């Protein structure tokens, strides 16, 4: 079933303990759409870039089958630019620059051909833009997944609260969950956040995996212990893209299927961190994917007879 993705399509400049990149393609929607494209060929992008964006980067998205009809290119304007530097632990980073540029007054236009999308992924963007997209769809999608970040908790709290009421699933990291709920315990945090709107909450814990909270049940997906972690940028978005891409391809939003989706999302995110930017996730073979998912299965499979 078809998927609509909104978020940033950007230039990023990254610095990790292993090296630096100049302006390379990044953005929440870039990682989400690329990841989702491994599961469904019906991925529709809504985003905005300036005329400094490279035609070759747009062509790369199209080669993955991503529909870019909803990607606005603004003449005479600059694309969103973000730069960040990772600390030695690779789990924490400092944002060095956020230049909103075209994102500052982004008016998301939904092409007619996207109107019947059954799955909606609201990638990192202002909560008001995320809400505008929901409002511009004639039919409510079967599942709305939203990602957000601490920045919006700091500068757009009321908007964020309004948008949260409209979504089914929220994905955030552990630090953000604590900030949003004002609770240290992630179990208490999950309870509070789920009262804000989303029935399902996914808390990403970087190299310590992810938790899925659903009604009174909780499921844990580990992160794969990797030899090489080069650049964590986009891992959260890649995870979200894999998660919703798998759900959209199966058309099943049950808790059991969400558990599988969590593993597929984690598998894709584990590739993402192995190289800079999108480099590792632009060319994954089906065999690599299968082997990686099998590694996850092997990592957590054990037999215990209780009682
Ligand atoms: P992640 O590492 O999953 O948090 O995502 C990193 C991506 O988010 C980068 O490629 C950035 O371009 C993008 N990004 C960073 N800040 C923002 C923001 N305020 N709004 C939208 N996208 C952002």
Give the helices and strands, then pairings.
Elements: E1 3-6, E2 10-16, E3 19-20, E4 24-26, H1 28-36, E5 43-50, H2 55-63, E6 66-74, E7 80-86, E8 93-99, E9 119-122, H3 127-135, E10 143-147, H4 150-155, H5 157-164, E11 169-173, H6 174-181, H7 186-195, E12 200-204, E13 210-214, E14 217-221, H8 235-250, H9 255-272, H10 286-300
Parallel strand pairs: 1-5, 1-9, 2-7, 5-6, 9-10, 10-11, 11-12
Antiparallel strand pairs: 2-3, 2-4, 7-8, 12-13, 13-14
Number of helices: 10
The biggest beta sheet is recorded as: 9 strands, mixed
| Strand tally | 14
How far apart the termini lie comes to 43 Å
What hetero molecules are bound to the protein chains? adenosine monophosphate
> Uncertain spans, ≥5 residues at pLDDT below 50?
none
Strand arrangement within the widest β-sheet reads: 6-5-1-9-10-11-12-13-14
Average pLDDT number: 96
Question: What is the beta-strand fraction?
Answer: 15-25%
Q: What is the CA-based Rg, rounded?
A: 18 Å
- Please report the first level of CATH classification, the CATH class: Alpha Beta
Tell me, briefly, the overall form: globular
Series of H and E elements: EEEEHEHEEEEHEHHEHHEEEHHH
- Indicate the CATH topology: UDP-N-acetylmuramoyl-L-alanine:D-glutamate ligase
Give a concise summary:
This protein is an alpha/beta fold. The chain has helices spanning 28-36, 55-63, 127-135, 150-155, 157-164, 174-181, 186-195, 235-250, 255-272, 286-300; strands at residues 3-6, 10-16, 19-20, 24-26, 43-50, 66-74, 80-86, 93-99, 119-122, 143-147, 169-173, 200-204, 210-214, 217-221. Bound molecules: adenosine monophosphate.
């Amino acid at each position: 079933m078809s998927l609509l993705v909104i978020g940033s399509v950007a230039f990023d400049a990254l610095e990790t303990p292993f090296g630096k990149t100049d302006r390379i393609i990044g953005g929440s929607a870039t990682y989400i759409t690329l990841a989702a494209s491994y599961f469904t060929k019906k991925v529709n992008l809504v985003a905005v870039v300036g005329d400094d964006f490279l035609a070759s980067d747009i062509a790369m998205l199209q080669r993955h089958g991503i529909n870019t009809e909803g990607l606005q290119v603004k003449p005479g304007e600059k694309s969103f630019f973000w730069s960040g530097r990772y600390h030695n632990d690779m789990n924490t980073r400092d944002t060095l620059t956020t230049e909103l540029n075209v994102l500052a007054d982004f008016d998301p236009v939904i092409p007619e051909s996207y109107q019947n999308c059954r799955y909606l992924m609201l990638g990192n963007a202002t909560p008001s833009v995320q809400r505008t997209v929901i409002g511009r769809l004639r039919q409510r999608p079967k599942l709305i997944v939203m990602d957000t970040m601490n920045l919006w908790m700091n500068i757009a709290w009321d908007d964020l609260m309004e948008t949260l009421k409209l979504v089914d699933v929220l994905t955030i990291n552990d630090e953000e969950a604590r900030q949003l709920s004002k609770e240290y315990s992630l179990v208490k945090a999950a309870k509070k956040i789920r009262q804000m709107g989303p029935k399902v909450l996914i808390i990403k814990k970087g190299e310590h995996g992810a938790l899925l909270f659903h009604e009174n049940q909780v499921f844990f997906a580990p992160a794969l212990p990797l030899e090489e972690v080069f650049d964590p940028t986009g891992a959260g978005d890649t995870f979200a893209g894999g998660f919703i891409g798998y759900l959209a391809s199966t058309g099943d939003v049950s808790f059991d299927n969400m558990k599988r989706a969590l593993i597929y999302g984690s598998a894709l995110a584990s590739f993402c961190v192995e190289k800079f930017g999108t480099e590792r996730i632009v060319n994954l073979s089906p065999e690599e994917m299968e082997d990686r998912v099998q590694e996850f299965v092997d990592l957590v499979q054990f037999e215990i007879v209780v009682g």
